[in-house]
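Help needed: design a sequence for this.
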């Protein structure tokens, strides 16, 4: 039966309608029929977007108003593409000839007899859509959710003015810091105890990771606690094992004890070595129920690592086994021995259930408190993220009253809904869609549904996508009368690629054989694995020393990846020879992870192949941006020798090794001091001194973006980097410099008043490389260069030549902690939510859930390989590095992608070493904006203030901003403050005394001690209806917010002006903090607080 099913699955059927074979014309006609709901499973390259757009066209031709159509996909890019493709089609229907328009309509399922009357209607659709007062809605899921929430702000609990953020790393960091502070409060003792218990169970690092996993699944947690008690679910699942140690239950299991005793008796028939084990087993069993007896018993069956003990096959034992168990007695005994061992191992795992419950009890307590603070941090900044958006939409639509209200306001106008890439949906999103549909009841106006997806391309489980949702949606909609259509015909992949695909994916349970419309022959090349070279023992000598300035240290693994990259480069060059007309932009290299990207890039560079890498989160790690960060670091701390050496060696200055050696040999304490010596007469170093002194002076008074702008202009930085970079990477380098200056303007809306704060912000971004760190700049898409992408990044793309790198890698990602959530597809909420730690401490009650997780992980691994393979139009090249741990002599790792390819050919590469034909130009054009400097206006200062008074005020503000970042405050000595600010020592002494006076006042401490307020920020800038306001310090308490302004003195003549200024501040702040009472005050240098009402 199973063989018959596999045969059916692997028999190519291009099109199916409700399980029956079909042709393309009937398939398209059914899929686009406006009167039917349809679920379409479409393979990669089959034209899903074409089908979606065709469905929309048919809906419009059927008289549907544009505003009655809702199309939802998963990315803004996909939504934009769908919109553009639709408008392009409508435009073609307007301007093309009758014959061409009729052909377009015929392709999209319009019956032959209806073409004549449809033609004039089709020609008018473009104008109709453009003139429609309400546009056709093509959105992402999250855009749709946001609109639902905006319609019902009170019911959703999301006040007006909140913005959506994708950068959550810094928010989480802030929340964790605040959580660790608050956990020490007296009323938080139970949370502190739970946190200490977590540390004792899994350690600090794993606790933090568990909390982050918990927060990532917070929507599922909220859905769980809304309908039940997750801890009670877990306790019920664990049963008695969660209360008492399961190891003691062995002595109540008569069957297992009898089997153990039988094994001991048989061992007792052997010689002394067998009898010794028999005695130990019998002693452990007869000693009675005790943990030490269980441990002694298990030690006879397996060691601490779980490896089964071997029984010596002595002559006496062998005879006894054959006499008692038959001629296969020896084998039967070993099977039974290991079977008992497995039973004991399961009991051992069951004994972990109390730990499992304890872990979850503590984590739920700590996680709920941490989550509450995380939500509060976002509320203070008036932001929310995608998970919040989904949860609020779920809350709204699972409430029948709210759902009916939303439909009356918005959703009732939708008559047709199209859902794209549905395999990437998570259970929460599907529950929202179901709740929305249920709100119609048996209403005949319930919208038609068009769902399209491909479970084989579901690769986003790390974003909570659940491929089983597609199957659940299919079952629900088919039960309601929808048609199920499947197409296995691709328009993309060549015949040779599809043949290998069909052979290689037989073991994939959800794969069905594909066909192709491509006329290309195509091929799959499987390069030989790079083997580890046997290194001979070499006697070390000084000649083996490496020059660290010119020669990087090479790790063995990097060397093998470099070899792989070189082999791939040669294969690419050969592929271009056999692929007529192929450009560099027709080549795509795919990696599962970015771990070895540098080695591959180096190999391409050596071969002269132009390329562009997908370095997500890599802007701050690029060499040119690292140079600029080193320069900014030097401008904060001029005595940082490493930062200065970095800047000098970079293209910004361009010092030679001899210049650096000359500096290193001098005796002055700092390199900055050495650089000032007259005898260092190198023109490069003289230029460095001139520029760095000027930039040091500017750094004290210019915003970061303006400072960078001056640095780039005065140092000819862009031109110098363009000259230093090779043609292969020049575009990327210059784009990264531009992206960094843009980051300086945009980071926190450009509100960083000081260079140190900007550098701190960059360091935080670097630590959160997986989430918030900025990406490298996107270079011109028209550039003729090979693309290096992750498989996830390549989803939806294609190329003539695709290289799959590192295909012999099979090590799964470590899974030492995480969340288990079971959400049955037909249910409105989860029925299980728990966390897990190390594999040895997960218990046995949740085995079925872990088995499901493992199955889903295995399937996603197949899906990733499918997505990678189907990017190739004409040629797929597969490469890898031999696994030294492999049992196979050829180094092929068990279960790896390389081993799955069946029918691939090894290319006949000759001994020639090919080199790219890219010309390295001697000159290149570079347009640089360099306007002539304009003279600055010199406004006359009011006579009431002297320059000295203004400088004193500026210095006091800068000092208070620095000092109030931590508590208790430590005020440094005058010389250090003078360097900090920077200012004269006399002025530093004055403002030091003023700050000391202010911070010493007991009545002012509540504004500076974090334990006494909820939130505080210096130099906060607010844009409101009243304009732009900048506050010296803002302090938030539970029910009020204080705006503080520092002043040297407060004269009676100034009170009216200050009162007006602070009144504007209150108006601006009230717009942003509508629920708080706003209070304003001046703090003068004598430590007096004067509230201005």
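Sure. Designed sequence:
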């Amino acid at each position: 039966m199973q063989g018959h099913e596999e045969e059916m699955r692997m028999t190519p059927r291009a099109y199916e309608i409700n399980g029956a074979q079909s042709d393309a014309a009937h398939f398209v006609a059914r899929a686009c029929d406006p009167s039917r709901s349809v679920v379409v499973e479409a393979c990669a390259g089959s034209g899903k977007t074409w089908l979606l757009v065709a469905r929309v066209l048919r809906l419009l031709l059927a008289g549907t108003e544009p505003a009655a159509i809702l199309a939802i996909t998963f990315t803004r890019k996909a939504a934009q593409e769908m919109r553009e493709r639709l408008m392009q089609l409508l435009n073609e229907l307007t301007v093309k000839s009758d014959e061409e328009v009729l052909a377009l309509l015929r392709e999209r399922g319009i019956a032959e007899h209806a073409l004549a009357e449809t033609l004039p209607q089709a020609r008018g659709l473009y104008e109709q859509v453009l003139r429609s007062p309400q546009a056709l809605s093509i959105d992402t899921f999250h855009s749709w959710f946001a609109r639902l929430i905006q319609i019902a702000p009170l019911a959703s609990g999301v006040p007006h003015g909140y913005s959506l953020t994708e950068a959550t790393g810094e928010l989480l960091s802030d929340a964790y810091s605040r959580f660790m502070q608050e956990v020490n409060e007296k009323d938080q003792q139970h949370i502190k105890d739970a946190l200490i218990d977590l540390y004792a169970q899994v350690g600090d690092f794993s606790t933090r990771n568990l909390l982050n996993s918990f927060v990532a699944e917070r929507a599922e947690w909220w859905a769980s606690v809304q309908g039940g008690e997750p801890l009670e679910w877990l306790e019920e699942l664990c049963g008695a094992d969660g209360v008492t140690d399961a190891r003691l239950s062995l002595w109540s299991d008569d069957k297992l004890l009898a089997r153990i005793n039988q094994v001991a008796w048989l061992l007792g028939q052997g010689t002394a070595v067998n009898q010794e084990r028999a005695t130990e087993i019998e002693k452990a069993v007869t000693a009675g129920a005790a943990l030490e007896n269980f441990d002694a018993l298990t030690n006879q069956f397996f060691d601490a690592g779980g490896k089964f003990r071997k029984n010596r096959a002595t002559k006496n034992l062998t005879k006894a086994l054959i006499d008692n168990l038959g001629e296969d007695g020896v084998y039967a005994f070993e099977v039974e021995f290991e079977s008992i061992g497995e039973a004991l191992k399961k009991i051992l795992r069951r004994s972990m259930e109390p730990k499992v419950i304890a872990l979850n009890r503590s984590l739920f307590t700590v996680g709920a408190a941490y989550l509450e603070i995380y939500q509060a941090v976002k509320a203070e900044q008036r932001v929310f993220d995608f998970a919040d958006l989904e949860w609020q939409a779920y809350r709204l639509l699972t409430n029948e009253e709210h759902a009916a209200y939303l439909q009356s306001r918005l959703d009732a106008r939708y008559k047709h809904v199209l859902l794209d890439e549905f395999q990437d949906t998570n259970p929460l999103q599907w529950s929202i869609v179901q709740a929305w549909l249920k709100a119609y009841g048996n209403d005949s106006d319930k919208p038609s549904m068009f769902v399209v997806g491909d479970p084989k391309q579901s690769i986003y489980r790390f974003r909570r996508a659940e491929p089983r949702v597609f199957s659940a949606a299919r079952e629900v909609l088919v039960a309601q009368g929808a048609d199920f259509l499947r197409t296995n015909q691709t328009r993309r992949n060549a015949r040779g690629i599809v043949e290998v695909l069909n052979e290689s994916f037989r073991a994939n349970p959800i794969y069905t054989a594909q066909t192709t419309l491509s006329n290309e022959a195509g091929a799959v090349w499987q390069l030989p694995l790079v083997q580890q070279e046997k290194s001979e023992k070499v006697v070390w000598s000084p000649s083996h020393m490496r020059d660290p300035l010119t020669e990087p240290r090479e790790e063995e693994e990097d060397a093998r990846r470099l070899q792989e990259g070189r082999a791939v480069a040669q294969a690419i060059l050969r592929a271009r020879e056999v692929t007529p007309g192929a450009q560099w932009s027709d080549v795509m290299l795919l990696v599962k992870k970015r771990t070895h990207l540098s080695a591959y890039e180096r190999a391409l560079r050596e071969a002269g192949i132009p390329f562009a890498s997908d370095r997500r989160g890599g802007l701050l790690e690029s060499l040119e941006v690292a140079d600029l960060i080193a320069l900014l670091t030097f401008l904060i701390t001029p005595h940082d020798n490493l930062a200065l050496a970095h800047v000098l060696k970079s293209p910004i200055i361009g010092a030679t090794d001899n210049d650096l050696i000359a500096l290193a040999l001098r005796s002055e304490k700092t390199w900055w001091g050495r650089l000032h010596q007259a005898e260092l007469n190198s023109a490069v170093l003289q230029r460095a001194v001139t520029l760095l002194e000027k930039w040091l002076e500017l750094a004290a008074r210019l915003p970061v973006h303006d400072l960078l702008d001056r640095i780039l202009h005065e140092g000819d930085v862009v031109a110098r980097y363009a000259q230093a970079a090779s043609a292969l990477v020049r575009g990327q380098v210059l784009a990264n410099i531009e992206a960094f200056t843009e980051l300086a303007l945009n980071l926190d809306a450009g509100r960083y008043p000081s260079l140190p704060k900007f550098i701190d912000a960059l360091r935080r971004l670097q630590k959160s490389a997986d989430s918030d760190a900025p990406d490298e700049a996107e270079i011109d898409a028209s550039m003729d260069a090979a693309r290096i992408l992750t498989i996830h990044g390549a989803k939806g793309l294609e190329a003539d030549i695709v290289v799959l790198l590192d295909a012999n890698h099979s090590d799964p990602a470590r899974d030492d902690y995480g969340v288990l959530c079971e959400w049955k597809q037909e249910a409105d909420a989860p029925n299980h939510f728990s966390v897990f730690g190390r594999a040895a401490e997960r218990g046995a009650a949740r085995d079925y859930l872990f088995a499901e997780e493992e199955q889903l992980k295995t399937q996603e691994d197949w899906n990733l390989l499918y997505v990678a393979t189907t990017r190739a139009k004409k040629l797929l090249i597969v490469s890898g590095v031999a696994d030294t741990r492999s049992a196979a002599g050829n180094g092929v790792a068990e279960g790896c992608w390389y081993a799955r390819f069946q029918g691939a050919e090894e290319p006949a590469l000759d001994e020639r070493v090919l080199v790219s034909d890219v010309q390295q130009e001697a000159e290149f054009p570079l347009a640089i904006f360099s306007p002539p400097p304009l003279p600055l206006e010199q406004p006359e200062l009011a006579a009431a203030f002297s320059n000295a008074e203004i400088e004193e005020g500026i210095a006091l503000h800068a000092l208070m901003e620095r000092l109030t970042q931590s508590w208790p405050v430590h005020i440094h000595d005058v010389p250090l403050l003078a360097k900090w600010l920077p200012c004269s020592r006399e002025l530093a002494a004055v403002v030091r005394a003023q700050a000391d006076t202010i911070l010493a006042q007991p009545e002012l401490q509540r504004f500076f001690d974090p334990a006494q307020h909820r939130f505080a920020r210096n130099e906060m800038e607010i844009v409101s209806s009243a304009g732009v306001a900048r506050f010296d310090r803002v302090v938030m308490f539970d029910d009020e917010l204080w705006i503080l302004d520092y002043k040297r003195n407060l004269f009676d003549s100034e009170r009216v002006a200050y009162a007006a200024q602070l009144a504007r501040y209150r108006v601006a702040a009230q717009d942003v903090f509508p629920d708080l009472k706003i209070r304003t005050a001046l703090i003068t240098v004598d430590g007096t607080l004067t509230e201005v009402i």
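The first strand starts at residue 15 and ends at 17.
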